[in-house]
Amino acid sequence: MRLLPLLLPVLLAACAAGAETGTLVRRAAGDGRAAFTFDAGAWTDPAAVRRLPIGVFDSGIGGLTVLEAILSLDAFNNQTLELGPDGVPDFAKERFVYFGDQANMPYGNYGAAGRTDYLRELILKDTIFLLGRRAWPARGDAPHFAKPPVKAVVIACNTATAYGLEDIRAAVAAWGVPVIVVGVVEAGARGVLETNPAGGIGVMATVGTCASGVYPRTIGATLGRAGFGPPPIAQQGSATLAGAIEGDAAFTEPVAVYARREVRALAEAYRELRPGRPLETVVLGCTHYPLAKTEIEQAFAELAADPSWRAVVSPRLAFVDPATLTARELFRELARARLRLGAGENPVIARDQFYLSVPRPGFPGVRLAPDGGLDRDYKYGRLPDQLDREDTKNVPLTPAVLPPASARLLRERLTVVWSRLGGG
Question: By CB distance 3.0 to 4.6 Å, which of 6, 259, 319, 411 could disulfide with 295?
Answer without folding.
Answer: 259
